[in-house]
Amino acid sequence: xxxxxxxxxxxxxxxxxxxxxxxxxxxxxxxxxxxxxxxxxxxxxxxxxxxxxxxxxxxxxxxxxxxxxxxxxxxxxxxxxxxxxxxxxxxxxxxxxxxxxxxxxxxxxxxxxxxxxxxxxxxxxxxxxxxxxxxxxxxxxxxxxxxxxxxxxxxxxxxxx
Length: 161
Fold this sequence. Notes:
This protein is 67% helix and 0% strand. By secondary structure, the chain is mainly α.
């Protein structure tokens, strides 16, 4: 009979996978600061609105309702761009530090969108449902905006944190 040779244990190459990355936790004070910074446009809007209508200063120009509407609309777009750019930027740079603020920025986009619609409905068309329906049906940009509001509503309802 042939003698059974013992085989040397197979040496495995060291595991090349890196150790799990430590998750970056923001300092406790940073989230409230980011929240307050995101509210600065609203504070300016509230100040300008109250100053225009109660003191007659015309911060928002000769047609303050339209300017306030446009101001809120501009901030919707800014927050949407920031929210949508967080993931690609974090993947390209390898830094996932902003990902923990993505939901907050998205909710602020919804906040300013809601504010924009309320300004339109209350101040611009004075809650005239017939005018609003006519505008939604007749102006494509309002139709697109209302569709976007519905989509943002669905996204904000699923953002439970």
